[in-house]
Design brief:
The protein is mainly α. The protein has helices spanning about 15-30, 35-55, 65-80, 85-110, 115-135, 150-160, 165-190. It is about 70% helix and about 0% strand.
């Protein structure tokens, strides 16, 4: 005896390849929960929202995460020390971006929405921090640790793009905004699994 599945009017054709995977992913993360559970899903977003505002308002004044970010930035220089002058100079910025992105990916694999949101918050704050550093490439008015050379001045000068330091700063501000938007809308697209 063979079992056949009835096909309703909403399933006229069969999805194939990428469309099938996208459909499965959409079904997996679609919120089909009671309203009180959906409200609970948005609670971390409401807690993290003031931090996004604080980071945006304090963009060039420093925030409580700056000592941690400075440590990670300097560790990035150490990690990329053996890969030439350009990567050594870019290593700090690379590490400031790669670490939160790696954490976000880790939390995505384990379906931890809160972990992803905190990672996006940290990535956004790091991007704002990088934007201030990149914008200072020509002026070099920031006080640097131990009087080191200015990474962004060196990188952009070497590439002949020093006059575009403000454009790079805008790019990192834009990335920060995307990161903050991602953390704010994440509960609408991702369901926490236990």
């Amino acid at each position: 005896m063979s079992r056949t599945r009835a096909v309703g009017p909403e399933r006229k054709g069969k999805l194939t390849g990428g469309a099938q995977r996208a459909h499965a992913l959409a079904l997996r993360y679609t919120l089909r929960m009671p309203s009180w559970i959906r409200l609970r899903a948005w609670l971390p977003t409401l807690v993290l929202l003031p931090f996004t505002g604080y980071f945006l308002l304090q963009r060039s004044h420093g925030v409580f995460l700056d000592p941690l970010n400075m440590l990670i930035h300097e560790a990035g220089h150490l990690c990329f020390f053996f890969f030439g002058d350009a990567l050594h100079a870019a290593g700090g910025t690379l590490m400031q971006v790669l670490l939160p992105v790696t954490l976000a990916y880790h939390f995505w694999q384990y379906h931890s929405r809160l972990g992803m949101q905190v990672s996006f918050l940290w990535l956004g704050q790091n991007c704002l921090n990088i934007s201030v550093y990149a914008a200072d490439a020509r002026i070099q008015g920031l006080d640097l640790l131990l009087g080191r050379k200015h990474d962004w001045s060196f990188l952009l000068g070497r590439l002949g793009l020093l006059d575009y330091d403000q454009l790079f700063a805008f790019f990192f501000c834009f990335c920060a905004m995307l990161s903050f938007i991602a953390l704010l809308v994440l509960p609408s697209v991702m369901r926490e699994e236990s």
